[in-house]
Amino acid sequence: MSDAGTPVHVIGAGPAGLATAAALTARGLGAVVLERGEAVGASWRAHYEGLRLQSTRAYAELPGLPPQRTSGGRLTRDDFVAYLERYATHHRVEVATGVEVFGITRAGEQWRLEANGGRRLTTPAVVVATGLNHTPYTPSWPGRDRFEGELLHSADYRTPAAYEGSDVLVVGCGSSGTGIAADLARGGASRVRLAVRTPRHLVRRSSLGWPAQRSAVLARRLPTGLGDRLSGRLTRVENLGKHGFPHPRRGICSAAAAGAPPVVDDGFSGLVRGGRIEPVAGVDRFSGAEVRLADGSSVRPDAVVAATGYRSALDQLVGDLGQLDGSGRPLVHGPRTLPHSPGLHFAGFTRPVSGALRELAHEARRIAQALVEATS
């Protein structure tokens, strides 16, 4: 990498982008963060009001500044947004808002970024930190366009007040699905069902004072089978099989490696046991006012919330550069780059069992160090 006087361009002002920019600045490299939204943490601001982070406060810390103390040890959505704002100010991170990058190309020894407003930006190094949760994804269920009820993605869900007295089906049992189902059940929905296709492990936040995330950190670098055994012994796992919520056959680490990380139980299991959330089979198709399920049964909800995940949309950004695997994720990430793409890094594109925020904090430091070494 050459031209050390030009700042590194970081795309995305979420936790990964801000942490990387702060780590670069701390090591004497200039950095500018390009954010398509109007403020830092734009995607976090869009989450539902009742969200709490899966990570505890201790494991949500970005390099150089701890989060504020909060009751219960887990930050709310608003707590975390305020932390990101404070983090950017504390580290004097330069953020250019309203700048959406839609293409990255190689130009000699430089990278060229094509952005809105006819912008063409040139830089010796780029860190893509747009994250896995970039574009909401809703499966193309047959008949969904003719569904007579309300169908929305979890990205558009804000508060249970709009569904008071309603029959709601939440599709997906990851952290968003279980969290929104619990939010609706507590917020006055008349009936809440949760459609489960790929079951998740439900882990208590702590057992006898031992945080579940600490077990995950210990198991992070162990062989998968050994990690399954260790996490199973140290972590209290809820089993709701008798209440219709299938228990995964794989261990915690094996399931996480296959794309189904555990979910921290924040009262969800109690709501299932109490009958306030009813697990049902996965969605097969829509038919008028009905939703047909994979086991042949059907339900007639007033609203369906699709907590069915996101797509990174990296193919639009770097699809012609040979950077992605078959699932659209970076072939390498963190400090590593491909031989034909020096100076092009990806941050925040993993979902480790030990927690995404903890991992990206370490990743930010490693990327910054790699870029420092590339300029020396």
Describe the structure.
With 376 residues, the chain is an alpha/beta fold. The protein is 26% helix and 23% strand. The chain is built from ten helices and 23 strands. The strands form seven sheets. Strands 3-2-1-7-23 form a five-stranded parallel β-sheet, with helices on one face. A five-stranded parallel β-sheet has the order 9-21-10-11-17, with helices on one face. The chain has a three-stranded antiparallel β-sheet with strand order 4-5-6. α1 packs parallel to α10 (356-375) and α5 packs antiparallel against α6 (224-234). The longest helix has 20 residues, at 356-375. The termini are close together. The mean pLDDT is 89.
Instruction: Bin the helical content.
Output: 25-40%
What is the helix tally?
10
Q: How are the strands of the largest sheet arranged?
A: 3-2-1-7-23
* β-sheet strand percentage: 15-25%
Give the low-pLDDT segments: none
Question: Which key terms come to mind for this protein?
Answer:
alpha/beta; 5-stranded parallel sheet; 10 helices; 376 residues
In short:
The chain has 376 residues and is of the alpha/beta class. It contains ten helices and 23 strands.
Topology:
Elements: E1 8-11, H1 15-26, E2 31-35, H2 42-45, H3 77-90, E3 94-97, E4 101-107, E5 110-115, E6 119-123, E7 126-128, E8 135-136, E9 150-153, E10 167-171, H4 175-186, E11 191-196, E12 202-203, E13 206-207, E14 210-211, H5 212-219, H6 224-234, E15 237-238, H7 252-257, E16 263-264, H8 268-273, E17 278-281, E18 283-287, E19 290-293, E20 298-299, E21 303-306, E22 310-311, H9 314-318, E23 344-346, H10 356-375
Parallel strand pairs: 1-2, 1-7, 2-3, 7-23, 9-21, 10-11, 10-21, 11-17, 12-16
Antiparallel strand pairs: 4-5, 5-6, 8-22, 12-15, 13-14, 18-19, 19-20
Helix pairs in contact: 1-10, 5-6
